[in-house]
Design a protein that fits this description.
This protein is of the alpha+beta class and about 300 residues long. The protein is built from 10 helices and 9 strands. The strands form 3 sheets. It has a 4-stranded antiparallel β-sheet with strand order 1-4-6-5, covered by helices on one side. A 3-stranded antiparallel β-sheet has the order 7-8-9, with helices on one face. Strand 5 and strand 6 form a beta hairpin. The longest helix has about 30 residues.
Length: about 300
């Protein structure tokens, strides 16, 4: 059974000068991403505008400003503008690859040039290579660095012109469970276009970490359903209106599943009978004895 989920504790930073808008003050709300449910928490917070930095999820919480807006693009509904199409044609020869979250000197040099041009006085301007490595490599969730490179004449890696640290969220897995295992529909719901959903859904389903996540969610769902089933069975057993035959069958099924039945083989010791041979009173007595042993901490 999975560990119980604890509602996270949220904190608010002290006001500080906004790095984007002159004369404005920024404030952030944040929480720690740790423990076995870090990925699920990061995924849920990401859907309501939070971003991640190492083991912390945060979002703006400014008192008098709402200028920063978190945007999620639904790929199937996105219609590129004329400017977008022009840029896609111009940059159509770029090589894009998803890399493991390992920092490189090439990435850090690119970041330094970007910060110097766009955020020379920002909070990240003083970041060194160790700080950058911590930002990329210290992650409690499944992350990738997406690299964008110019084509090289010799066929090798071209010049790095862009990089993006991105977390792989559980949208596909969540919708895969919801649709009863339809990989194409899950891919569409997760944001892939209808044209590529079939292929992308199949590819995602083959990845070991995606299969592990699906199995984990299925076990969680079965555990939740089993808890409901046990509660319903308890109510039926305690309800005097439940027919005696139904109560007998239910008790037999529960005891069999729990391994509490007497041996049913021909070699069974004298005096022991199969569950099917016990009366309702005998089955109820057995259940009460098992409950008493558990209450006293004794083995069955």
């Amino acid at each position: 059974m999975s560990a119980p989920f604890r509602f996270p504790r949220f904190f608010v930073t002290s006001p500080s000068p906004c790095p984007y808008l002159p004369g404005k003050v920024e404030r952030k709300v944040f929480t720690e991403l740790s423990g076995p449910h870090a990925a699920e928490l990061n995924d849920a917070l990401g859907r309501i505008g939070f971003r991640r930095s190492q083991g912390v999820a945060y979002r703006p919480s400014c008192a008098d400003c709402q200028a920063c807006v978190s945007v999620r693009v639904v790929a199937d509904d996105f219609v590129p503008s004329a400017s977008h199409r022009k840029l896609m044609r111009r940059q159509g020869d770029l090589h894009v690859s998803a890399c493991k979250p390992w920092s490189t000197g090439e990435q850090f040099d690119l970041l330094q040039r970007y910060l110097g041009a766009r955020h020379p006085g920002g909070g990240m301007a003083q970041m060194d290579e160790i700080d950058y490595a911590d930002m990329v490599e210290h992650t409690p969730v499944n992350s990738h660095v997406i690299e964008y490179r110019e084509p090289a004449a010799d066929g090798g890696p071209g010049r790095l012109i862009g990089a993006c640290l991105t977390d792989q969220q559980a949208e596909f897995v969540r919708h895969y469970i919801r649709t009863g295992g339809n990989a194409s529909e899950a891919a569409i719901a997760a944001g892939y276009s209808r044209e590529s959903a079939g292929q992308r859904g199949w590819e995602l389903r083959q990845k070991p970490h995606v299969q592990e996540a699906i199995n984990r969610e299925l076990r969680k769902s079965f555990t939740d359903l089993a808890t409901i089933a046990i509660d319903q069975a308890r109510m039926m057993l305690l309800d005097s209106k439940t027919p005696a035959s139904a109560r007998v069958d239910l008790i037999k099924a529960v005891c069999d599943r729990a391994g509490l039945g007497a041996p049913k083989t021909a070699d069974a010791p004298t005096g022991e009978r199969a569950l099917s041979e016990l009366t309702l009173a005998e089955l109820e007595s057995m259940a009460l004895q098992v409950a008493a042993r558990k209450a006293e901490g004794r083995p069955n």
